[in-house]
Write a structure and sequence with these properties.
The complex is a heterodimer of chains A (249) and B (269). Chain A is an alpha/beta fold and 249 residues long. Helix content of chain A is 35%, strand content 27%. The two termini of chain B are 29 Å apart. The chains are: A alpha/beta (249), B mainly alpha (269).
Chain lengths: 249, 269
């Protein structure tokens, strides 16, 4: 596939200032400054945690990147860097092409609102234009299979129905770059098959996919390149089968 | 070096703000949603607030109207406009300061201009203001007080008030995201300003030597450019000038601060 999308991370470092309750307080900060630090000599309360270091990734259209690593290895942070939410303290990030991140499919859902209102809300949050929402509304509702229930408050849905609605909205996108934290698939057997089909269709249309997952089977099926993160560092980067074979042994 | 940094800060801020304004549908949808969420399960909805405001106005009228021996057809509209306007100003400032903190989930999940989250708060407060304004025609009708053409000047006045609130909210939201106890300070200051600004008391009661306290208070001028026209009077030139000067200086300060710390805000949440 020929596309114009590209992602380039060069020498990226991400440091998190972790504030304890004292350093989040302006009063303490002033006392600290006014007393020349005498009152609170031991610590300023700001701990810097290096969450990603020396990250170099170049992606071009057609690449499907999987990210593996233990909990806390920096996977979600890396996804957020690619989505443009965190800007690195050092290094550069260049992302060309429109990018949608599906990190939490329940984002923006209001339990008191009806299904239809929630479709509108969620879609708006994902950056879909009002005209496009109107156009796709029926299709989304149709896909969710909720029928009449779409006019009922979201809180009255069974958890399966809630997931179906959230999925249906999240999957009405066609970005050039798709960033996902775990695969979206949900619902009963029948819905799951349709959801799977829909996801595959979306992924095949996107130019670049970045997917963080713990599932070997999923990654080997979807990705052609995998990065192994450990303590914020890339310790292996290569063809999916090689990295997965190493990681999952 | 310093000059370059300043220029970069402004560029950063403006690119976010202009992108935010371009996505105005996001602002209105989310702002409306905030109101719906809060009042969905009540029949009267946001009018509960209006009832509360009406009660405040009536109470203040009974207390201060008698205390200061004020004439009802003068003082009641004065009080009603002032209280409604102040309610808008103070809740916009208080909610505005928390706008990044409240939206932190969204900020960490989807890339969206940060200014959207500030404007969303202004929008939902504007909707509440629209509910409360209903009190005014009732008061004017009750007193059979006519509106003059001068009242139209309240529209540009209101615009200036909202533009001023925008920079205050933007600046506070940056500071409050970093220092979480700052919203307590904001709360206190807003409370103090409520007493210093002629809302419950008429500015004509202020003796001349205290006049300086009145003149340096930007909120006095902001309230005046909306209230005076509605009462059929022209705001003073000083009212307009002061409001506009604060508007320009405030925006410069707020956009600089916003741009300077723009990339840090997500880390603070």
């Amino acid at each position: 596939m020929i596309g114009s999308a590209s992602i380039s991370l060069s020498d990226v470092y991400i440091d998190f200032p972790v504030f304890n309750s004292a350093s989040m307080s302006l009063k303490n900060r002033i006392l600290h400054t006014a007393s020349g630090g005498m009152l609170d000599k031991k610590h300023t309360g700001i701990v810097i945690v290096r969450s990603l270091q020396q990250i170099n990734i170049q992606l071009k259209a057609g690449e499907r990147l999987g990210i593996v690593g233990h909990n806390g290895s920096g996977k979600t942070t890396l996804l957020r860097v690619i989505s443009g939410i965190y800007r690195p303290v050092h290094g550069t990030v260049r992302v060309n092409g429109n990018c949608i991140s599906l990190i939490n499919i329940n984002l923006g859902i209001d339990p008191e609102a009806t299904g239809r209102e929630n479709v509108k809300l969620r879609a708006t949050m994902m950056g879909i234009s009002p005209a496009q929402i109107r156009e796709q509304m029926d299709e989304i509702i149709d896909f969710s299979g909720l029928g009449e229930f779409i006019e009922m408050p979201f809180r009255t849905y069974s958890s399966g129905m809630q997931l179906r609605l959230a999925f249906s909205v999240s999957s009405c996108i066609s970005p050039q770059i798709l960033v996902m934290d775990e695969w979206l698939s949900t619902g009963d057997k029948d819905f799951k098959a349709r959801a799977e089909q829909r996801m595959n269709a979306i992924v095949s249309k996107t130019e670049i996919l970045v997917l963080a997952s713990h599932s070997c089977e999923l990654l080997s099926r979807t990705c052609n390149r995998v990065i192994w993160l450990d303590h914020g560092k890339i310790i292996m980067d290569g063809p999916a089968e090689d990295v997965l074979a190493k990681y999952f042994t | 070096m310093v000059r370059l940094q300043i220029r970069e800060s402004f560029a950063e801020a403006w690119s976010d703000i202009s992108l935010g304004l371009k996505n105005h549908h996001v602002i209105t949808v989310l702002g409306m949603q905030d109101i719906l969420t809060r009042y969905r399960r009540s029949k009267v909805g946001a009018f509960w607030l209006t009832i509360g405001i009406a009660t405040t106005i009536a109470t203040l009228y009974i207390v201060f109207g008698t205390l200061f021996k004020q004439n009802i057809s003068e003082f009641l509209p004065y009080l009603a406009i002032g209280v409604i306007l102040w309610n808008f100003i103070s809740s916009a400032i208080l909610d505005g300061g928390n706008s990044f903190i409240v939206s932190s989930d969204t900020i960490l999940q989807v890339k969206m201009p940060l200014f959207v989250h500030v404007m969303r708060v202004l929008w939902s407060n504007t909707i509440i203001l629209a509910h409360n304004v209903v009190i005014l025609p009732l008061v004017f009708l009750f007193l059979l007080k006519p509106l003059s053409f001068v009242a139209l000047l309240a529209i540009p006045g209101m615009l200036i008030v909202m533009l001023n609130l925008s920079w205050i909210m933007l600046m506070l939201s940056v500071i409050c995201a970093r220092y979480r106890d700052f919203s307590m300070i904001v709360q206190n200051v807003t409370q103090v300003l409520y007493f210093f600004t002629p809302i419950m008391w008429s500015e004509t009661l202020m003796p001349e030597r205290a006049g300086i306290l009145l003149r340096i208070n930007p909120f006095y001028h902001l309230v005046s450019i909306v209230r005076a026209p509605l009462l059929g009077k022209l705001p003073s030139m000083l009212n307009w000038e002061y409001s506009l000067v604060v508007l320009v200086l405030g925006w410069i300060l707020a956009t600089y601060l916003f741009g300077r710390f723009y990339s840090k805000i997500a880390y603070w949440l």
